[in-house]
Fold this sequence. Notes:
The protein has helices spanning 10-26, 41-44, 61-70, 100-103, 105-108, 111-127, 136-146, 169-180, 199-212, 229-238, 253-262, 277-284, 297-301, 313-325, 327-341, 346-362; strands at residues 2-4, 33-36, 50-53, 76-79, 91-95, 130-133, 153-155, 186-190, 218-222, 245-248, 265-268, 289-292, 306-308.
Amino acid sequence: MVIDARWLRTGIGRYTLSLLHGLRERLKNVSLTCITQPQHLDLVSGLCERVITCDAGIYGIKEQLALPWLARAASALYAPHYNIPVMWRRQLLVTIHDLNHLLDTTYRGSWKSRLYAKPLLSMAARNADVIITPSEYTKAMLSEHLNAEPARISVIPGCVAPCFQKKEKKEARSNVALKLGINRPYLLFVGNCAPNKNVPLLLESMAQLRSRRDDAPLGVLAGSDCQWRPQMQEYARSLGLQDEAVWLDKITDVHLAELYSAALMTIVPSFEEGFGLPVIESMACGTPVICSQAASLPEVAGDAALLFSPYSCEQLTDNIEHLMDSTSTLEKLIAAGLARASLFSQQKFSERQASAILELISN
């Protein structure tokens, strides 16, 4: 079995590393080979029997030529993203995390979606022997929009990495102040500023909150993003939030865990999410979550978060105020969140992934 482990950044990178961490001990009779970029060699070398380095980037002709050749001795390939090698003709397992490129209006009209994402997603859904999705929502969208056979789709929810654990708030806030220079209470958003993330609504809610009360918290937006962030920063300035929004880039998991732990609450306002990892990461750190009632988010959050319409600034602001003012609701959500996050353990994730691989190679 060969696993494409070239992308080890952002959410897909965390997914791939979580996948690798539990497989070797559960697949003792399966030889695991990873293909990764040279700079990631140390990250994966202890997680599989063999590592092949490849400098081909993500999304391009070079990876399409390199991957089939590098994996030529294997009978099965695991692609943890939809960018499968189109010339691969042996057993294939693929994870399709979401269908944002088809469902989000901004994405689906772009040339990248029409010429790359949609054809590859269609091919992955058609050719894969086993498809893994992180939610029942994404499974339903795959069947509806790409005619993927439900029998070939396994739902394996994402997991909480071990570093995301409940910490004492005072200590976490002291560390965030020391390491990141954030000294005021804050709301946390984790992710890029792509259109499906609905960042404008979050900024509008922050502005509305400032008009209602003097103790409105900062907004901290954490996540790498060169494409969409500048226009969101300009929009924040237009709302008078130039001193009320903190933008953080290239945050390590250790610092991210501190950010979750020290936050008043985490906001997930997305229109579209295949899973919504910040929901369970925040819950695992003992910080309550407010998320939109859209796509997979209610499925992931269960009854452990406050929900709002992703089109209603008023609803989001009301929920933020309610959490700021109601100690009983805050404590209830913290307890429910910790219980909810425990359902998404690394152990369960690894067991389900190993079962999917064994299903593939046994056939």
